[in-house]
Write a structure and sequence with these properties.
Elements: H1 5-8, H2 30-37, H3 40-59, H4 69-75, E1 77-80, E2 85-88, E3 91-94, E4 97-100, H5 105-110, H6 120-126
Antiparallel strand pairs: 1-4, 2-3
Helix pairs in contact: 3-6
């Protein structure tokens, strides 16, 4: 066990650090925070959420269709972990991309004349983050 005698006898300041009425001023270290918000330390949890969004979007694709378009789209969701940077409120942040490059996935997402829009990726993305403060489905 450690020696906790210093907790019993607190250190007393021998000199006054501030004059009456004087206040401390906090100066944030913007370059350090900027480097942090662009680091892999932030990219990893963002990537985990992107993986959850991709899985939720795949689960929202309706079952079967003629020609197997729905099945192809369901299997086509991918996460691009190193998608670069994105500017949010003037500050650069890490960017992780959830995409589906299967031909026809845009038709299912946005719909067409004879095809009802499903919005599987849009709804999955809206279930997380700022749109749902408690953290997403099942939180």
């Amino acid at each position: 066990m450690g020696d906790f005698s210093d907790l019993e006898k607190p250190i007393l300041a021998t000199s006054v650090r501030f004059r009456p009425g004087q206040r401390a001023k906090y100066v944030p270290n913007h370059p350090s925070f900027g480097a942090f918000i662009r680091s892999d330390q932030v990219r990893d949890p963002v990537n985990e959420v992107a993986e959850d969004i991709a899985a939720l979007a795949a689960s929202r694709v309706e079952a079967g269709s003629p020609g197997g378009l729905h099945d192809k789209v369901r299997a086509g969701f991918r996460v691009k972990k190193h998608a670069g940077l994105i500017k949010v409120a003037g500050n650069l942040r890490v960017k992780v991309l959830v995409e589906n490059t299967v031909a026809g996935s845009a038709l299912l997402e946005f719909g067409a004349r004879n095809l009802r829009r499903e919005r599987m990726l849009g709804k999955a993305g809206a279930a997380f983050g700022d749109f749902k403060p408690e953290g997403g489905p099942g939180a």
